[in-house]
Amino acid sequence: MARNRLRRMTAKAKTSRVKGAAAAPVDVTAYCQDLENWPRSWMGLEKDLPPGEALIVCLRPFIEHLAAKGLAQNTIRQHVDNLWSVGGEIIRDLHYDPSLRKKSAYQLLRNAVHQYGGPAVHNASEEQQRSVNATCRQLHRFLTRSWR
Prior knowledge:
By secondary structure, the chain is mostly helical. The protein has one domain. 61% of the residues lie in helices and 0% in strands. It contains 6 helices and no strands. The longest helix is centred in the middle third of the chain and has 24 residues, at 73-96. The radius of gyration is 18 Å and the shape is globular.
């Protein structure tokens, strides 16, 4: 009896999908209106601008992915705030290790985020760092699945 009820419930919950159909692009400005200004906010020197702009190109699909998942707006905004912090740390690292400037933004991002979290954020509380690490774990899974 319970099995039949469960089968009916799961059958109703299934939605049909057209194979190969692309999801409509999501407008990320609802979650981060200043996304295009991030490179300037991270910038210490003028030469930080191109890698910052390239990072935005890498981060935008992840933000669109978060928005398409139907998460609460506050949750998406928290992830967006964390991504801003991660981008700032990546640009900061360019000052300490100039050889990193030779790497692509995608390589810098892949080196910064991993299955356990992300970079240590300058002046972040323990709670903020945990939040950044959670976002970085999700970003890592996204990059691993979609950029192969």
